[in-house]
Specification:
Length: 164
């Protein structure tokens, strides 16, 4: 793993975070969004939630290597022990242990918040993300078949769950 520092997300990070997200929009099938988004739209899509952890990973040069966050799975109190995960790494930083470090930090914070389950929804076209989650203890719990279309390709939404 390359040396990184995990820091809480702050307003100054949002432009760089949106840039990472937009790289995936433009060059991969990892997002559900087909066109790049503004910082304001990015913030809306991420649903940052007070009290829930959100981290950026910065390398030794201070460059943003990735980010991850948890948000409520649902506003309904019955689901207070469940959070939804989002994580993206900058180009060239996958497979270097950064995503694992972000996930471990989020999981540690989740336990302190009383969260017992983390869910992730992943496109069936995003094989790298599926491998990442499954290798780190997430289990596929279901899929909505053919409900999405991105760049003319249909995809399933796969529900992954990790319980502590």
């Amino acid at each position: 793993m390359i040396p990184i520092e995990l820091l809480p997300v702050c307003a100054d990070d949002l432009d760089e975070m949106a840039g990472i997200f937009n790289y995936y929009v433009e060059h991969t099938l990892a997002t559900y969004t087909e066109t790049p988004v503004s910082v304001e739209r990015f913030v809306s899509l991420m649903c940052f939630s007070p009290g829930y952890p959100a981290f950026v990973a910065r390398d030794s040069d201070g460059a943003l290597a990735g980010f991850g966050l948890l948000r409520p799975y649902s506003p309904i109190p019955a689901f207070d022990r469940t959070a939804e995960l989002t994580c993206f790494l900058s180009k060239g930083n996958t497979g270097r242990g950064i995503g694992s470090a972000i996930l471990q930090a989020l999981e540690s914070e989740a336990v302190e918040l009383g969260i017992e389950t983390i869910v992730a929804t992943v496109s069936s076209l995003n094989e790298e993300s599926l491998r990442f989650h499954l290798a780190r203890g997430f289990v596929e719990q279901g899929r909505l078949v053919g409900i999405g279309s991105r760049n003319g390709r249909c995809f399933d939404v796969i529900y992954l769950q990790k319980t502590f």
